[in-house]
Design brief:
Layout: E1 5-14, E2 19-28, E3 31-36, E4 44-47, E5 52-55, E6 57-62, H1 75-84, E7 87-92, H2 103-116, E8 120-123, H3 139-145, H4 160-171, E9 176-179, H5 184-187, E10 192-193, H6 196-201, E11 205-206, H7 208-225, E12 228-231, H8 237-248, E13 253-257, H9 260-263, H10 285-297, E14 302-303, H11 312-315, H12 332-341, H13 348-355, H14 357-363, E15 378-388, E16 407-417, E17 420-424, H15 426-430, E18 432-433
Parallel strand pairs: 1-4, 1-5, 6-7, 7-8, 9-12, 10-11, 12-13, 13-14
Antiparallel strand pairs: 1-2, 2-3, 4-18, 5-15, 15-16, 16-17
Length: 439
Amino acid sequence: MRNDLLIRGGRVIDPATGRDEVADVLVAAGRVARVGRVRESADETFDAARCIVCPGLIDPHVHLREPGNEEEETIASGTAAAVAGGFAAVVCMPNTNPPLDNEAAIEFVLRQSARFGQCRVHPLGALTRGRTGRELAEIGQMVRAGALGFTDDGAGVANSAVMFRAMQYVAMFDKPVIQHCEDPDLAAGGCMNQGLTSVRLGLPGIPAAAEEVMLQRDLLLAAHTGARYHVAHVSTAGSVDLLREAKRRGLRVSAEVTPHHLLLTDENCAGYDTNFKMNPPLRSRADVDACRAAVADGTIDCLCTDHAPHAASEKELEFQNAPFGIVGLETAVPLTIRALIEPGLIDWPAWVACWTVRPARVLGLSVPTLSEGAVADVTVIDPDAEWTIDASSFRSLSRNTPFDGWPVRGRAVLTVVEGLVRYRSAAGERSATATGRET
């Protein structure tokens, strides 16, 4: 049941319209009914004083593990984690088991999300059959089923001819090709960034060149094909330089970066804690600074979590044998505030844009907005909330995070999806009055 909801007195930031003012937002019948000074009452009122009220956040890079690894995450648990983190929509990667490389697989994800999802789930299809990098998948059929774009995420497409054909074919549907840039021969056997720290720890490294070589090749192919090309989880200063030049030349390229690549370096791996093992690996301080600057100047378009759940038994293996990846949906808001807003690199409107209009434009989604009549996807953030990240309290089925125990500031206190309150924090509970509300 959808009750009318009045979000009162927050700082309303809507990058799609340029709105940035203290105002009320009235939600009725699943849509934004009014923005401004609202005098009438509603079934439920949420006091958003001193909070940011913005369109529902979008995470363009999430692993939900269903089908195949439901012990690590499901669509139900992953979307529960998403709304707890402030996300009204997530884009799920196709490296499931079996992979999302056909029409039926895309339809399965959409059916499951309609039945069990707490937020909107947009699937990506695999570029190649079985994500083997050898033969194109059923791209046209997956577009028909609802795939937003195509990627073999977790593995870069190494064969140049296959990638060239993929770009040509996907361009026919005006969908993005999303690449995990990593040359498999340069990266083979590596488990962290190649550098002085990897030498000191005695661990095989993955050089920055592994990312940059594939990116350079793909930019050449994108120039020849006119394809929309998006770079997943950028991690090196060299990649930033390549992207900046590609944009200057007018190529249809975009990129994303994760909170961990904006906050952590390869030196964090010194304790052999596998929660710091991720792909692409944590890089140098110079790479972190370059990625931060690239968000600030727009070279990197949007933020993402690369939420990658793993069972504790897997992460308890020795560093070289443990899987790559960390969870991130429930910690992304405070971590990106720390990385970008607190140092003064970007302001709140730019931060909101990185999580809303920019990923929507990359993926061809309707641009999220709080304009009257728009679908009511709304996130309310308390920028001053001080709390400590506690992995044991996550809604995700997995706990693999290097940020457990970190004191942070800022968190989502209310997430509304299509007019339904899908998440309210304990602090938000105290500020709300309601009758018959749905959570």
